[in-house]
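Quick illustration, no need to memorize.
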Amino acid sequence: MSDEEIHDSPTGWVAKHIQSYVESDGAKGHSFHGAPTLLLTTTGRKSGLRRRTALIYGRDGDDYVIVASLGGSPTHPLWYLNLEADPRVEVQVKAERFEATARTATPEEKARLWPGLVKIFPNYESYQRKTTRDIPVVILTRR
């Protein structure tokens, strides 16, 4: 993992969540409104800077699964565009930090994983109804 500076989300409440998570090794911040969260660091596709955000996750065997919902926005979140350009990411779950490879779930994988993700965070269902874009599910596999 790189020692380069990490740039946290510019969204104020997300940045506070990340800092609390990092400072406590996930003791504070792992649970967000009852849902488990991880920290994802991608490489900016334009800037080349390391960018970190907090995301709700599920599990699929040894893999971690996240949703590129952006609250049902008509556009993909920037972190998703970054990992499409460079799938090598860094992940922190509680105190554990590791490198992973990100990939978009196939339609069949999404169909299987989506119900479990909605169970973890029911708002995903309304986010999908709110947008015409197919919200991607991303699988993170430890390297």
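DSSP finds four helices and eight strands in the chain.
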